[in-house]
Write a structure and sequence with these properties.
The complex is a heterodimer of chains A (68) and B (208). Chain A has 68 residues and is mainly α. Helix content of chain A is 62%, strand content 0%. Classes of the chains: A mainly alpha (68), B mainly alpha (208).
Chain lengths: 68, 208
């Protein structure tokens, strides 16, 4: 008696693995897209660095608590 | 690709150790963008390129923010994917997903009867079929299948990443696979029809 796993009409594990691997392939970028992503990375980094600098500045300018 | 990214990450950390400049990670992020797009699309269902870029931007910001907490003894890509996961889910909650039609009429032929066509299809056509079937699963199931098939992770490894017991993870993998196979058998999703009654006031509620 065939088991449920013998159902040949369903994609096999190997077929699925192969097709998933294809789906996960890194995208190829055109030169324009590459420039656009570089710009995103640069802006994000600068935004983070600015945030860090502001936070450090706020820390420095915070008054030192004095004992009463 | 995973090995390439790990090499870039090691190189970036070395350079960062000398310069303390975050520019050291630019190349890593560029490679991660190419690697992340298929995941944002197929796991989180974000197909619109502009929305994909927004999720990447938020992920990159979190990357810088949590970089100091990254334990270099542990694999990098699962750490990064955790960041993308939270950024993508937050994005979807806030903005929703913009639908973009991208299948050609020829591709739609493949989706008419996934199972029969799958058996006869070329590998490139199978990619389209699987993409469509995946899009009809719940994101949690897609995540589990992605980890299982793309990264080849065992149930134990997945359980650590998703912070669930091994028993629950094994069950989740089994259930996701079952749903995937059921979708192959059930054929394409029925197109949503506009409801002509929608927007009409119920007779009893009419205000004169």
């Amino acid at each position: 008696m065939p088991s449920r796993d013998d159902d040949l009409t369903l994609p096999s594990d190997d077929e699925l693995r192969k097709t998933f691997a294809q789906l996960a392939e890194p995208v190829e970028l055109s030169e324009n897209e590459r420039d656009e992503v570089e710009e995103i990375i640069r802006k994000t980094r600068e935004r983070f660095e600015q945030g860090e600098a502001d936070a450090a500045g706020r820390k420095r300018s915070r008054p030192i608590p004095t004992a009463e | 690709m995973g090995d390439d990214i790990n090499a870039l990450v090691n190189e970036a950390f070395l350079s960062y150790g000398e310069t303390y400049r975050f520019t050291s990670f630019d190349n890593v992020l560029m490679a991660l963008y190419r690697y992340t797009c298929p995941m944002t699309r197929n796991v989180y269902g974000i197909r619109d390129p502009d929305q994909q870029k927004e999720v990447f931007q938020e992920s990159a910001l979190r990357f810088f923010k949590y970089l100091r907490t990254y334990d270099r003894q542990r694999p990098f890509l699962p750490w990064w994917e955790g960041i993308v996961r939270s950024a993508a889910l937050d994005f979807i909650k806030k903005n929703g997903i913009r639908q973009s039609r991208e299948y050609s009429t020829d591709d739609e032929r493949l989706l008419d009867n996934s199972l029969i066509v799958w058996k006869r299809a070329e590998q490139s056509e199978r990619k389209i079929i699987l993409e469509d079937v995946l899009s009809r699963l719940h994101p949690h199931d897609r995540e589990i299948l992605w980890m299982h098939y793309v990264h080849g992770l065992t149930a134990e490894e997945i359980s650590k990443l998703v912070n669930k017991s091994l028993f629950r993870t094994k069950y989740a993998i089994h259930r996701a696979l079952k749903k995937l196979r059921n979708l192959f058998q059930s054929g394409p999703a029925a197109p949503k029809k506009a409801n002509p009654e929608r927007g009409k006031k119920a007779p009893g509620n009419a205000v004169s």
